[in-house]
Amino acid sequence: MAQLIEVDDQEVLSADENDKEETEDVAKKSSESDAHSGSEKSQNSTKSLTGSAIEHYFENGRRYCSESYYMPNDEEEETRLAITHQAFLHILGGEELTMARMSQDVERILDIGTGTGDWAVAMGEKYPEAEIIATDISVCQSADVPPNVFFEVDDAREDWTYSEPFDFIHMRGLTGAFRDWAAIYTVVGKHLRPTGYFEIADFGAIALKESIPDSYIGIYNGACQSAAEKAGTPLGLDHLRRTVFESAGLGVVKSRVFDVPLGTWSPDPRKKVAGKMTLISSLEGLEAKSLRLLTRELAMKEEDVRDLCDKVKEEVMRPDVRAFVPCQFVIARKLLT
After folding, report:
1. What is the CA radius of gyration of the chain?
2. Disulfide engineering: 297 pairs with which of 42, 113, 230, 337, CB 3.0-4.6 Å?
3. DSSP-assigned states of every residue in 104-122
4. Are 169 and 184 in contact (CB under 8 A)?
5. Residues ≥6 apart with Cβ < 8 Å to 179
6. Do the Cβ atoms of 167 and 195 come closer than 8 Å?
7. For residues 98 and 120, what is the distance between their CA atoms, to the nearest angstrom?
């Protein structure tokens, strides 16, 4: 069988001395004899995309689709997610949707936490013969999608009911979404074909090239991390550590971290566009990420959270501090005996 997915170097947001990369062959070779059985299209797969079952919750002027998940699902957040999609594209060079290279023969793709569905729609257009299932706990996807893309309301924290495995499973922007990432990765492995790959990407916390004593960015990051830990869903990039994947039976094939500038301060022209998009996404995400966490877990007042976010924005916009965010991509696959 021809290899459907390859992992190698490609033109991405240029690496400098601060960008970190790991590439490693999985120690135990996957079988190439995985049979791609035919499937009925996903009208019969799991749960259909209907908004009637989604209950909305309103707190601090934002709308949420869950009592527990900390991120909102209102129009402001939909706009931010669309901008974030563009940021990811430019981090990977401008047009690439994945760090892994995929053949046009890929058959089944799963996108967990699809958000506005921009990635799934773009994949459907790029791989018209593939069946693409995109799931989320919220309904905010466009009704105008390619015929091979199927949106479903589903919670990845519950049982996965897919009857056939996937060639490629994708997640991004889900830091803080799960209590037990190893358990999630274990389920991912169960639903991957032996030759399949799993790719996940996330942004870390805002950081500064030039530190500021007692910075509001540090106060904000510390408060959000404390609140998330209290809620049992830590933020950051710890869920992308190699040991977490290995504990779930997955081997990391490639891991790469990019320090993405917030704004256009980088002299590298390829980083300027990514930096501009990531700046907008990050500034718009300050309140989105913190309002529910800090008011619920740390009992902060709404106006105090918004005031802290405003102060963080002022610091980020200072050209002398050169703010950035780490963005990590990991590609993994099953470890087979």
Report:
1. 20
2. 230
3. TT--EEEEES-TT-HHHHH
4. no
5. 232, 233
6. yes
7. 11
3-class secondary-structure state, position 66? coil
- Tell me, rounded to whole angstroms, the distance of Cα 197 from its chain centroid: 16
> CB count, 10 Å around CB of 283?
18
Q: Which residue has the tokens 């963080």?
A: 312
SS3 content of the chain, % helix, strand, coil (to 5): 30, 20, 45
Strand partners for 334: 250
Kindly report, residue by residue over 100-120, the tens digit of the pLDDT: 988 888 999 999 999 999 999
The predicted pLDDT at position 8 comes to: 53
Alpha carbon distance 128, 148 (integer Å): 7
Q: Model confidence over 123-157: pLDDT tens digits? A: 999 999 999 999 999 877 666 889 999 999 999 99
Decide if pLDDT at 29 tops 60. Answer: no
Q: Which residue has the tokens 């990391």?
A: 252
- Indicate the DSSP class of residue 4: S
Task: Please state, in angstroms and rounded to a whole number, the distance separating the CA atoms of residues 178 and 43.
Answer: 27
Count of positions (residues) in the chain: 337
Tokens representing 204 are 């870390």
Distance of alpha carbon 290 from alpha carbon 169, whole angstroms: 28
The residue type of 206 is I
Token pair 């740390």 is found at: 298
Give the global pTM.
0.87
